[in-house]
Design goal:
The chain starts with 18 loop residues before the first helix and ends in a 5-residue tail after the last helix. The chain is an alpha/beta fold. A five-stranded parallel beta sheet has the order 3-2-1-4-5, sandwiched between helices. The protein has a five-stranded parallel beta sheet with strand order 10-11-9-12-13, with helices on both faces. The chain has helices at 19-29, 45-58, 78-88, 111-123, 152-164, 200-209, 220-229, 250-264, 274-280, 289-308, 322-333, 347-353, 358-363, 394-407, and strands at 34-39, 61-66, 97-99, 128-131, 167-170, 174-177, 182-185, 195-196, 238-244, 269-273, 312-316, 337-343, 385-387.
């Protein structure tokens, strides 16, 4: 192989050592045995205890070697993770630990990937690799059963240790024994041991609500970094996405909600009204299904960017198709919260209002592909809030929305 040029990265350049550079850095530490730890998650106290035990078992130094390529959907972004690793590193004895990052995408391939990870770490100068329970596991199959047996990766790795030239350090799940005040392996926790656990879902919930993260679970420095990336909901970016027929009252409520939010909070609010978006962002589009979906995709992209930067986007298109609305939700969910509001005003009421005369033209065949008349409207089944403006006036509708945002923690 002839290497013309290695990939150029703009971030964490001092941590992106090649295998030869990392080997040299490990030689400086002066320990012939090096145990590597492969990770795609922030390090909490359970991980720190596991890695510390592994280092003591091997009697050498540690290479903390996280993957910073594509990982599992929903994982903490690698920028946050690397900052967490940098904060945890001082907890290890001086001269015994090295942090380097690996631009590797996770395949979630279980046992075969564990062997691959071993080969990679051998190239980086490691003599041992920690292989945990369900290493790089794919999760559950369609029936809800684990796709790989929990210790399949350890078994396959053990088979190939000699030819790879790297030894496995097997570790099982670490649990916190409350009465002893320390982490132990699941096997060490005897019957009747009072265990404390904090799931990933519960951690995210506490971060969203600004609740306390217990000291036994993770380090204060890690909590600080996670809170920077996952602030409480009152400080998170937010998209309120309206959908409903023409004349249902979407724009009226959206405009009033914007005014209410600006009145009572320091949120930066962007209003993406359907007509204004058509004029300024999608002026070349027609009203075919393809063009309608593209229009909603554009609105979702802008809303996601507003949300990603901590602002509030209020979107008020007709958005008649369920798939396009779900696509907008997926775009926003990657960066913050998405609240779908179905303005469910009956078509008879919308048509009676008909301020623009559009329904009359649609009935006369002068306007083609008109939602509710000559084109379908797919009512959402996943709306967080439903409002019928034939039963609620503007202010009552906004009160309903504000109440929902308060209950969910988006407004204090």
């Amino acid at each position: 192989l002839r290497v013309f040029q290695l990939p150029r990265h703009a971030d964490f350049r001092e941590l992106r050592g090649t295998p030869s550079a990392v080997r040299r850095d490990l030689e400086v530490l002066g320990h012939p045995r090096v145990v590597a730890f492969q990770t795609r998650n922030p390090l909490h106290r359970a991980h720190e205890e596991l890695v510390r035990r592994a280092s003591e078992t091997v009697g050498g130094s540690l290479l903390l070697h996280p993957s910073v390529g594509l990982t599992k959907p929903g994982d903490v972004d690698y920028y946050t993770r690397v900052r967490c690793y940098e904060k945890v590193l001082p907890h290890y004895p001086p001269g015994r630990a090295l942090l380097a990052i690996l631009p590797l995408a996770m395949r979630m391939a279980g046992p075969r990937e564990a062997v691959w990870h071993g080969l990679i770490r051998r190239n980086f100068g490691c003599t041992h690799l920690i292989v945990g329970r369900d290493h790089a596991g794919a999760g559950a199959d369609a029936s809800g059963r684990p796709y790989h047996p929990p210790y399949a990766a350890q078994e396959l790795f053990k088979t190939h240790e000699a030819e790879m030239g790297i030894t496995m350090v097997p570790f099982n799940e670490m649990v916190y024994a409350a009465d002893a005040g320390q982490y132990v392996t699941a096997e060490e926790a005897g019957a009747g041991t009072r265990l404390l656990t904090l799931s990933g879902t519960e951690l995210r919930r506490r971060l969203q609500r600004g609740d306390e993260i217990p000291a036994w679970f993770t380090f204060p420095e890690v909590v600080d970094e996670l809170r920077r990336t996952y602030p409480p909901r009152a400080r998170q970016g937010l998209t309120v996405f309206f959908t409903g027929l023409s004349g249902s009252g979407k724009s009226t409520i959206a405009s009033a909600l914007r005014a209410r939010l600006l009145e009572r909070s320091d949120r930066q609010v962007t209003l993406l009204d359907g007509d204004l978006v058509r004029q300024n962002l999608s002026s070349e589009l027609g009203f075919s299904r393809e063009h309608r979906d593209l229009n909603i995709r554009r609105i979702g992209f802008v809303a996601a960017e507003v949300t990603r930067h901590g602002g509030t986007a209020i979107c008020a298109p007709i958005a008649p198709y369920d798939a396009a609305r779900k696509d907008a939700r997926r775009q926003v969910d990657a960066h913050g919260a998405f609240v779908l509001v179905h303005v469910s005003t009956p078509i008879e009421v919308c048509e009676a209002r008909d301020r623009k005369g559009l329904y009359a033209k649609a009935r006369a065949g002068l306007v083609k592909e008109f939602t509710g008349v000559s084109d379908p409207y797919e009512a959402p089944a996943d709306a967080e809030v439903t409002i019928d403006t034939s039963a609620l006036d503007r202010d009552a509708a906004v009160d309903t929305l504000v109440g929902h945002l308060e209950r969910e923690g988006f407004l204090t």
